[in-house]
UniProtKB/TrEMBL annotation:
SUPFAM superfamilies: POZ domain, TRAF domain-like. GO terms for biological process: protein ubiquitination. Pfam families: BACK_BPM_SPOP (PF24570), BTB (PF00651), MATH_2 (PF22486). Residues 421-545 form the MATH domain. InterPro entries: BACK_BPM_SPOP (IPR056423), BPM1-6 (IPR045005), BTB/POZ_dom (IPR000210), MATH/TRAF_dom (IPR002083), SKP1/BTB/POZ_sf (IPR011333), TRAF-like (IPR008974). This is BTB domain-containing protein. PROSITE patterns: BTB, MATH. Gene3D superfamilies: 1.25.40.420, Apoptosis, Tumor Necrosis Factor Receptor Associated Protein 2, Chain A, Potassium Channel Kv1.1, Chain A. Residues 172-239, 578-645 form the BTB domain.
Amino acid sequence: MGCNANILENCFLKLKLEHSRFNSVALGEAIVTEHPSAGGLNWTIVCFPRGCKSSNGEYVSLAIGSQDKSRKAAMKVVFHVFVMGRDGTPSPSHAKGSIQVIITYKPDGTEPVMRFLDKFMKRSELESDYLIDGCITFLCVITILPDDRSISVPASDLGNHLDNLLDCTDGSDVSFLVGGETFRAHRAVLAARSPVFKAQLLGSMAVAKMDRITLHDIQPATFRALLRFIYTDALPADNVLDSCSSTIELLQHLLAAADMYHLDRLKLLCAQKLSDRVSVANVATMLGCAETHNCPELKGRCIEFFMVERNFKKVVLTEGYLRLMQRVDPLAVNNAFTEETDVPLTPRSVASKQAITITLKTATGTDTRALNTSILSCSGGELTAKVSPYRGTEEPFAHGLEKVTEKRRACQAAIMLDSCFTTFKLDYAGTKNLAVGAVICSDEISAGGHLWRLRCFPHGYSTDDHGAYLAFFLQLVSDSKNVKAIFDVALMGRDGLPSPMHTKRLMKEYSKASESWGFRCFMKRSILEQSSYLTDGYALLMFGVIVLPDNPRHNPVTVPPSDIRNHLGHLLDCTDGSDVSFSIAGETFHAHRSVLAARSPVFKAQLLGSMADANMSCITLHDIQPTTFKTLLRFIYTDTLPGDHEFGTSSSATIELLQNLLEAADMYHLERLKLVCAHKLWEHVSTDTVAAMLNFAELHNCPELKNACIDFFLVEENLKKAVLTEGYMRLMQSSPSIIDEIRERIGN
């Protein structure tokens, strides 16, 4: 027996604040960071070091809000905050969550309200117990909960579609010969992702006219991983990387290739993976790689490693260190050694000081006076932090932000980390006859570069518990070692929010694959059965997996979010390399066969198969409007729809465009677009529109929207009003079978 895990949108960031600035902020003033993204909105996390009002001046207050005006409906949000302890891990005694936060908006949708953790922690305790190297660090998690009435939309499948395109090679128009191996690819995808490939394949260079290109300065394994990243924006999982004969060598070669092809995000991903693998044996080699290929993030991590005395004493005995020293100009070393420097050198002996000066000199390629800036600034990506006077909890959050735009403070490191939150719908009634120890497993989920599985024991983990408890465990599936993770479990109430009384958390280190940690006695079955948490025999739970960095004391390399959507969107806008066009009501739209074929099986048959359209450079379409096709193309390339403000000024215009788009999605078998449209149409359902929407859903084979509309009818108050509308009269005449279905559902 299994159960699907519905992935929730979330973001998780590490917010590091310098104590000197933290301590200088006055009562009511805030340190503001912006803008992590989750649920389609940009969020702002606000820290009040001396409280947000006079009544809590001895406390540190934290708050969350959004000034994004693109969404006018209410949204349920879980905001968790952890404070990092001296051991570099989150403190279990200071992990608080505003787990029933609802971000609400005024009717005009203009001023979102900020929600607070007013008394997160006493400032005196925070400063005495959690001040580490002059900084205080918070881990913040924002999780978007599903709307009870909303239609679920799966995660983006753009990467999967392009991944399949690469594997099947349909429509490939260029190949590469690398070390005797042939790799087929698509010019449009390569050009969209890399400016170097764009110049080579679509420009005036000789290779632009070649169907087969031979590459000499790259290995097959490296080029294979490079292509996979270009198509999916992801590296292989850690267990796949670790199965390679030389993971570090592959990552270094991949970083070099990313530098050569100007793939900046891949470069940072490689730097992140390499940073986690820095050791005495390889740090000198990594430092040389970082310097050669202009990677300050990896260079900073290597220098940080060198500055630890016990590491330094071992590194100087390695072959890699000797090779590194051979690159240094002796005269430059002597000059560097005699100059004063502000860098705090840990090794005390003169020999150690001279040797580490050589190392730093080699790494930076500049005089040591500049090292204080160049070394200490290698802290990864940062978000702007500003100070804002903010008074009370009733002021609209947008007003607070307006006051801080001209009062910037020094940047505080805010580093995005990896987490995954899911909902798990347990068929509790269906588990009645299971034995003690019987397990229900979720689909695999990904967090921190590792695969995980949720394991539920409806009648308990072992006979020692006498079948009285529900048990939940988190299992590490990947072949990984020493992975530290936080595991959250929360029972969801009928209001769609986590229950404070039935929420548990643990933090464990997984030493090997298949290891499980969790809660043997999460909740008594008898309590669940007598509670309101069961709905039609089902229980809904939320699980969270937060993977902590291997070495929490150093700043991890910050990798920005995937930019594949932006790259493909730009490809659509600039039309570089387009090989097909569509004529619709006098308007022409340029596109790329490979992208269309990857995303739609209908386009694949038309453009790459044996149909007549496959040989046509311009195709005329009649049964679709230009605006609809333009939006359809944008979704195909970016997997997103325009913002609500771009759909139209009136509700009727928005509904019409969404219905036309859903119809087109049905025609071209774009299942995710169909669900996105259904989700947005559902937001416009009312007693006046539900009958027409139900009829539309039936005509265009959208069971999700249809079932939601029928559920709307089942509410007595809605039914009494909806049956009096013209839409309901037309529904009775055109679709009597739907009326019968509504009657049957009401009867049940």
